[in-house]
Amino acid sequence: MLEIKNIYKTFNVDCEPILKGINLKLNKNDFCIVIGSNGSGKSTLFKVILGDYKVDSGSIKLHNRELTNLSIYKRAKLINSITQDTNKSIVKEMTLLENLALSEMRCKASTLLPYKRKTKKLREQLTKLNLGLERFLDTKMEALSGGQKQVIATIAATFSPPSLLLLDEHTSALDPKTSAFLMDYTANLVEKNAITTLMITHNLNDAIKYGNRLIMLHRGKIVEDFNYKDKNALTITKLLDLFHTYEDNTLTGVK
């Protein structure tokens, strides 16, 4: 379970906070979609959860463990994240197979399982995905396309299911066919392994289709929170109307 209480984050004392009293509670296996205009605080929220930014005040707990003062490295044992920047999710100097092997061992105790057996297992898993990526198992990641890297980063992050998964527009650089496959793959894996997940997206079709909850951020606050039942009644038109309403209220000074 993820519990965020009254989080504030400011980068400049002369400017208003980027995050203004964020409160959010997710149960295990919740797949929560996060939407909002540029500058609403979505990526900043993810970075304070990861520990990239220190909060001004408030607390973040994962399975009742306080994360606020936990180092980035210790948080990495609990949290996996995938962003648009694949260089943060892979080791480009290593081969595709080596990246998967490294990820598969992540968060696990040391093992004497022979490397050949481990790599055989990974080859079989990748072949089952039917993406043709098994042809590049011994290719260095830096030689692959941006889309291929993004697919591998996602697969690697979910081979060893984390306590919390953060997805920051992880399909935005992909072609429509690969994006659709990767979203279905991610959603099925989240459900199968009961992974608590937060996903930022600007794709309103994906925002409606996936997840059991949807929140909207605006100027550092959660302004909408739809549960599964309410989310199923949403349409792109309704979401666009909400975006316009909050932007119009900001321009007119209405709070």
UniProtKB/TrEMBL annotation:
It is a peripheral membrane protein. Residues 2-244 form the ABC transporter domain. Keywords: ATP-binding, Cell membrane, Membrane, Nucleotide-binding, Transport. GO terms for cellular component: plasma membrane. InterPro entries: AAA+_ATPase, ABC_transporter-like_ATP-bd, ABC_transporter_ATP-bind, ABC_transpr_CbiO/EcfA_su, P-loop_NTPase. It is found in: Cell membrane. One of its GO terms (biological process) is transmembrane transport. Gene3D superfamilies: P-loop containing nucleotide triphosphate hydrolases (3.40.50.300). It comes from the Bacteria. One of its GO terms (molecular function) is ATP hydrolysis activity. Belongs to the ABC transporter superfamily. Part of an ABC transporter complex. Transmembrane domains (TMD) form a pore in the inner membrane and the ATP-binding domain (NBD) is responsible for energy generation. This is ABC transporter ATP-binding protein.
